[in-house]
Amino acid sequence: MIGVAFIKGISMFGNKNYRKEEILECLKNAGIEIVGMYGNDNIIFYKPEGMQYASIGSKIEKALRKCFGEEFCVTTRSIRTLKNMLNFLD
């Protein structure tokens, strides 16, 4: 399954100004299969069978904290959930 991780607070009001390339480099060895990024705060990833989306969010938070030395809050959702939310608006 494909999911999206939303990193809260990246490049907002002059805080946590990290480029997409820096974030991707940081996550390279985090054990997450990255499909791509939208902007510098939305990570598209493959979720391994049996792993929870929240576990992937925790891995991303830990990797970012290790690289940049500050706390991050990550929320993850499946593509199916995002599609259902958008369909709700139609």
Question: Topology of this structure?
Answer:
Layout: E1 2-8, H1 20-27, E2 33-38, E3 42-46, H2 53-68, E4 73-78, H3 79-89
Antiparallel strand pairs: 1-3, 1-4, 2-3
Task: Provide a concise account of the structure shown.
This protein has 90 residues and is an alpha+beta fold. It has a single domain, classed as SP0830-like domains (Alpha-Beta Plaits), CATH 3.30.70. The protein is built from three helices and four strands.
User: Would you report the number of β strands?
Assistant: 4
**H/E order of the elements?**
EHEEHEH
Question: Distance between the terminal alpha carbons, to the nearest Å?
Answer: 24 Å
Tally of individual helices: 3
Total domain units: 1
- CATH 4th-level superfamily: SP0830-like domains
Q: Classify the fold: give the CATH topology.
A: Alpha-Beta Plaits
Structural class: alpha+beta
**Percentage of residues in helical conformation:** 25-40%
**Gyration radius, to the nearest Å?**
13 Å
| Strand order, largest beta sheet | 2-3-1-4
Show unreliable segments: none
The largest sheet is:
4 strands, antiparallel
Give the CATH level 1 class: Alpha Beta
Report the β-strand fraction as a percent range: 25-35%
